[in-house]
Design brief:
The chain is α/β, with parallel strands linked by helices. It has two domains: 17-51 and 89-281, Putative cyclase (Glucose Oxidase, domain 1, 3-Layer(bba) Sandwich); 57-88, no CATH class. The protein has helices spanning 23-30, 66-70, 152-161, 178-181, 196-204, 229-237, 249-253, and strands spanning 38-40, 59-64, 83-87, 95-97, 117-118, 122-123, 134-142, 149-150, 171-175, 193-194, 209-212, 242-244, 258-263, 273-275, 279-281. Strands 1-15-13-7-9-11-12-4-14 form a nine-stranded mixed β-sheet. The two termini are 38 Å apart.
C-alpha cells in the first residue's frame, strides 16, 4: 500500500487527517445546529458492555461508598462522599483507534518505526494524546447491511440518497445496523463493514475520522490473503483515526444526515486508543 498521506503535514506530524479540521470547518459545522437536540453516539460502559474474547471486560470498583459509613467511617460535619475506579481495555465499547494502533512493514503512519510502540513505555509516536478534540461536520451514511462488504458504490449511493457531498475535515459515520441486530451472544468475527476500496474513497475525499456501528469498521472476515486491510489503509497510510462501536440508530431515526459532531479522546500518554463519548448536535 502507498503511504499516501506521509509527509503531507511534515515529517514530524503525528496527528494525521484530523489536521484537515481547522477553524473554518468548526465554524461551518456550528452553523448546522438548528434545534439544539443532542444525541449520544456511545455505548454505556459496564460489566455488560460486549467485548471480544481476547479482551478483558469492564471492571467498575467502588473505593468508598455508603457501606463504609454504615460500618463506622467518620463523617465530619455530616459530610459523606463516594469514589470509584474504572478498569477497562482502551479498545472497549465506543472508542477511537490512535494512529499507533495498527501498522505494517515495521512502519507506523508517517514512517515512524514500529519499535516506538513498546510494552514498557507505550507509544512514543502517534499515541492517542496526539489527537486533538474532534469538532467538525459529521455526516451519516446509512447503509444497513445484514452481512458482507460495503463498497465504494454503496457509500456513494448512501451519500447521494442523503444529498451529501463529502468535504475535507468531515467525520464520516457509517451505519451498518450490526450493533442493533446483536442479541445476548455476539460473534465478533463476522460483521458487515467497508472494504479497502470504500476506505480509499473516504480517505481521498478528505475524511478526518471514519466511524461505524460495528466492531472493526471493516468487513469481517477479511478478504482471502489480507489482514485488516482497512486499518492498514486508513490508519497507517492515510492517518485517519477510526471510531468503533458507535451507536447510530437514534441519529438515523432522527433523519440526520449532517450535524455538528464532537468527540474528545482521553489524553492517555502513549495509549493506542481511548474510550470516547461522541455526540451529534442537530
Amino acid at each position: 500500500m502507498a503511504e499516501d498521506a506521509w509527509g503531507r503535514w511534515g515529517a514530524e506530524d503525528e496527528v494525521g487527517a484530523p489536521n484537515l479540521i481547522g477553524p473554518d470547518q468548526v465554524r461551518l459545522a456550528a452553523r448546522l445546529v438548528r434545534t439544539g437536540r443532542v444525541i449520544s453516539l456511545s455505548q454505556p460502559l459496564s460489566a455488560r458492555t460486549p467485548v471480544p474474547g481476547h479482551r478483558a471486560g469492564v471492571q467498575h470498583l467502588m473505593a468508598r461508598d455508603g457501606g463504609d459509613y454504615a460500618a463506622g467511617a467518620k463523617r465530619p460535619g455530616g459530610f459523606q462522599f463516594a469514589e470509584d475506579v474504572l478498569i477497562l481495555p482502551l479498545h472497549t465499547g465506543t472508542h477511537i483507534d490512535a494512529l499507533c494502533h495498527a501498522w505494517c512493514g515495521d512502519r507506523l503512519y508517517n514512517g515512524f518505526p514500529g519499535h516506538t510502540v513498546r510494552s514498557t513505555t507505550g507509544a512514543l509516536r502517534c499515541g492517542v494524546e496526539k489527537l486533538p478534540p474532534l469538532v467538525t461536520r459529521g455526516v451519516l451514511l446509512d447503509v444497513p447491511a445484514p452481512g458482507g462488504a460495503i463498497g465504494r458504490a454503496d457509500l456513494q449511493a448512501a451519500a447521494s440518497r442523503a444529498g451529501l457531498s463529502l468535504r475535507p475535515g468531515d467525520a464520516v459515520l457509517i451505519r451498518t445496523g450490526w450493533l442493533e441486530r446483536q442479541g445476548a451472544t455476539i460473534d465478533f468475527t463476522v460483521e458487515p463493514g467497508i472494504d479497502a476500496d470504500a476506505a480509499l474513497w473516504l480517505a481521498e475525499s478528505g475524511a478526518a475520522v471514519v466511524g461505524a456501528d460495528n466492531f472493526a469498521v471493516e468487513v469481517l472476515p477479511f478478504p482471502a490473503g489480507e489482514v485488516f486491510p482497512v486499518h492498514q489503509l486508513l490508519i497507517r497510510d492515510w492517518g485517519v483515526p477510526l471510531l468503533e462501536g458507535l451507536v447510530l440508530r437514534e441519529l438515523a431515526e432522527a433523519g440526520a444526515t449532517e450535524f455538528l459532531f464532537m468527540a474528545a479522546p482521553l489524553p492517555v500518554v502513549g495509549a493506542t486508543g481511548s474510550p470516547v463519548a461522541p455526540v451529534a448536535v442537530l
